[in-house]
């Protein structure tokens, strides 16, 4: 893994052509393909999905790729306990200097820390988005990305394992790289 650079970036999440949210993040890694950043929960207040709560004090270690149609966000509680992985289906990430732009394509996957819960999310929003009609190639790539994420989540490690999902880069020894969570 490249050493944390200490640089800050601004993550810009775009949805349906509009900026949904933008927030500062610490750049942990950028090898030209994979970008990892660390950021606190950026939205105001608590967001309770029923299967997980995102709240002030949570930390996200977010993994983006310039050549993959998804982003994977490791979600940690304030006490550094892993809550799970929130996976967004996106167009490949674009970094221009200190700005990292990611276009959300509605489909999501939640994987609990113990891998006991793997949930496909927002398939109805994706269908309603009209992407299949306006950009069929992107829609196909998005569906394939969700399928790939689900397959990775289900095969990554035995349920109950605390090992990270094997979405991120591996060291030369083949072990998963780990990014410190404050």
From TrEMBL:
<dbReference type="InterPro" id="IPR007295">
    <property type="entry name" value="DUF402"/>
</dbReference>
<dbReference type="InterPro" id="IPR035930">
    <property type="entry name" value="FomD-like_sf"/>
</dbReference>
<dbReference type="Pfam" id="PF04167">
    <property type="entry name" value="DUF402"/>
</dbReference>
<protein>
    <submittedName>
        <fullName>DUF402 domain-containing protein</fullName>
    </submittedName>
</protein>
<feature type="region of interest" description="Disordered">
    <location>
        <begin position="160"/>
        <end position="182"/>
    </location>
</feature>
<feature type="domain" description="DUF402">
    <location>
        <begin position="51"/>
        <end position="152"/>
    </location>
</feature>
<dbReference type="InterPro" id="IPR050212">
    <property type="entry name" value="Ntdp-like"/>
</dbReference>
<feature type="compositionally biased region" description="Basic and acidic residues">
    <location>
        <begin position="172"/>
        <end position="182"/>
    </location>
</feature>
<dbReference type="GO" id="GO:0016787">
    <property type="term" value="F:hydrolase activity"/>
</dbReference>
<keyword id="KW-0378">Hydrolase</keyword>
């Amino acid at each position: 893994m490249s050493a944390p650079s200490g640089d800050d970036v601004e993550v810009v999440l775009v949805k349906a052509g509009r900026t949904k949210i933008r927030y500062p993040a610490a750049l942990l890694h950028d090898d030209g393909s994979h970008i990892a950043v660390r950021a606190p929960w950026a939205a105001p207040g608590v967001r309770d999905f029923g299967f997980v709560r995102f709240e002030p004090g949570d930390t996200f270690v977010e993994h983006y790729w310039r050549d993959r149609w998804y982003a994977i966000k490791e979600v940690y509680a304030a006490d550094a306990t892993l809550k799970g992985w929130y996976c967004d289906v996106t167009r490949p990430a674009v970094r221009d200097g200190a700005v990292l732009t990611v276009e959300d394509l509605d489909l999501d996957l939640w994987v609990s820390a113990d891998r006991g819960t793997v949930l496909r999310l927002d398939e109805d929003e994706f269908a309603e988005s009209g992407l299949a009609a306006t950009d069929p190639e992107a829609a196909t790539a998005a569906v394939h990305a969700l399928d790939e994420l689900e397959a990775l989540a289900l095969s990554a490690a035995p349920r109950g394992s605390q090992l990270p999902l094997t979405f991120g880069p591996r060291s030369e020894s083949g072990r998963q790289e780990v990014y410190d969570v404050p």
